[in-house]
Amino acid sequence: SDETIASGERKDAMKKKLLIATDGSMHAKQALTYAAAFVSGGAEWQCTLFNVQPIMSQYLVEEAKTDSAVRTSLKKMSEQYQAESMATLNKGLDILLNQGIDKTAIELVSQERVLGLAKDILEYGRQNDYDAIVTGRRGLTRAQKLFMGSVTAKLVEFSDGQTVWVVDGDIAPRHFLIAVDVMAPWGRLLDRLSSLLAGMPRLHLTFYHVVQESWVEQLGTMSPETYDMAAKLARHEQEMSERFRQEATQRMIAAGIDGRHIQMLTPTKTAKIGKMIIKEAEIGGYDTVVICRSGSGRAYYSGSTSRYVADRLTDHALWIV
């Protein structure tokens, strides 16, 4: 009936959408497995497996306009690329199905390359309003492990408002380390997290804010007025930390997270912020690290910190929000 159809449409509209970029590699398989484990955690998600076909030679495209033989060869090449792309997508589909994801919640999309691999992924995600884009982290040798593959790095660099998940290793999402700066506006971060994590009661969340060691050093002078200002800033930071803890806890509980699984750490700054985040992720038993893509002004978690963590964090999943 029309009423049933309308009800189904409303249900689909409420689903969150995950765009999973896959190329059939080991890294793509890890990203698929991580995404499947997350999606199966209880929330309503729609998954799109996305593959960008190899680029066609522009020279051959131009030649095909006037040469029928080239046109025939180009058509065969296009069909081969399409077939290989669909084979890759179907392998990804099998992984999701084996992880218990319902086939009706999975879509396969093969697309010719237009703007470039990373830009095509981002543009498709932007045009179709996906909640997050998932990709594997490239790099096999020790030297390569230090930095992400070029496509993944471009996805992070040019995400511009889109959330990107970079998966490195065989990881099941459960323990999240969420790096925050309570001295910068954090409302949009909580909005995004409460949306992405809604209906996932089994997750454990640790919010992580690094407290400034010395506001006097930050202000750069040693006058009595400086000490007075530094004391005020220190008190303000403490107050903001408590405000953030309360707001974040309330928002996450409202999203369905078990309140017993939420905590906040406020260590004193002893090293570079990015280095402290990575160290905590490694020693704290976290599988997923969440960090804001960029900050403003002198916010701790600036774009440079995000890039530092993105380049050097391995064997974890990283969310760039």
- The first-to-last residue Cα distance is 40 Å
Counting helices, strands and paired strands, the structural category is alpha/beta
Query: How many H/I helices?
Result: 12
Q: Averaged pLDDT, please?
A: 82
Helix-strand topology string: HEHEHHEHEHHEEHEHHEHEHE
Poorly predicted tracts of residues: 1-13, 139-148, 295-302
Shape: elongated
How much is the radius of gyration in Å?
23 Å
Lateral arrangement of strands in the main beta sheet: 3-2-1-4-5-10-9-6-7-8
The percentage helix is 40-55%
**How large is the share of residues in beta strands?**
15-25%
Main beta-sheet strand count, sense and barrel state: 10 strands, mixed
Architecture overview:
The chain has 321 residues and is an alpha/beta fold. Helix content is 48%, strand content 16%. Strand 1, helix 2 and strand 2 form a beta-alpha-beta unit. The two termini are 40 Å apart.
Descriptive tags:
321 residues; alpha/beta; 48% helix; elongated
In short:
The protein is an alpha/beta fold. It is 48% helix and 16% strand.
How is this fold's topology laid out?
Blueprint: H1 2-14, E1 16-21, H2 26-39, E2 45-52, H3 58-64, H4 68-98, E3 106-111, H5 117-127, E4 132-136, H6 142-145, H7 150-157, E5 164-167, E6 175-179, H8 187-196, E7 204-208, H9 215-219, H10 224-254, E8 262-265, H11 273-283, E9 288-291, H12 303-312, E10 317-320
Parallel strand pairs: 1-2, 1-4, 2-3, 4-5, 6-7, 6-9, 7-8, 9-10
Antiparallel strand pairs: 5-10
